[in-house]
Amino acid sequence: MTDKEFASGKCVCGKVSYKINAEPLKMAQCHCLDCQRSSGTGHFSLAFFNKDKVNIKGETSFFTTKADDGPEITRHFCTDCGSRLFGTNSANKGLISIAVGCVDDHSWFKPQAIVYNKRKPSWDCMDIGLPTFEEMPPAPK
Ligand SMILES: [Zn+2]
Ligand SMILES: [Zn+2]
Asked: Pseudo-torsion of CA 45, 39, 132, 103, nearest 10°?
């Protein structure tokens, strides 16, 4: 039995693409400084999926940083066009975060939280109705 495709995505040049076969487990806007630098803007929009449900085609390069709260965050990007595609977290190896802007149709994206709000630039406007955390909230059990 094959899973039904939920979404697909690719980098700017198309060398790396993926298909996602499940709904997101959580969705967030992240204002941490590494997300700001690696995106070149005020935040990253991330959807988290079960890693087994994301099939990636094409080679990425990656860079690992240490998050304030301990774990290592590895961000993957296309070696040709530089698009940041997805990330993993050493504290939860079963999860993959997808950079929502690379998804072909991301109309389903509904962030459930804003994290690292203490780093939010005043010019980066967010939905004030969302639960907001100054740093990273504890992982849900
Ligand atoms: Zn590319
Ligand atoms: Zn971040």
From this structure: 0
Ligand nearest to the backbone CA of 60: 1
Q: Which helix H or strand E contains 39, and what residues bound it?
A: helix 33-39
Q: Which domains does the chain have, with CATH numbers?
A: 7-119 (2.170.150.70)
List, for residues 116-140, the tens digit of each pLDDT value: 999 999 999 999 899 999 998 876 5
- Which of 95, 79, 97 shows the shortest CA–CA distance to 87? 97
What pTM did the predictor assign? 0.92
- The C-alpha angle with vertex 89 and arms to 4 and 77, in degrees rounded to 5, equals 75
Q: Which residues surround ligand 2, an ion (CB under 5 A)?
A: 30, 32, 35
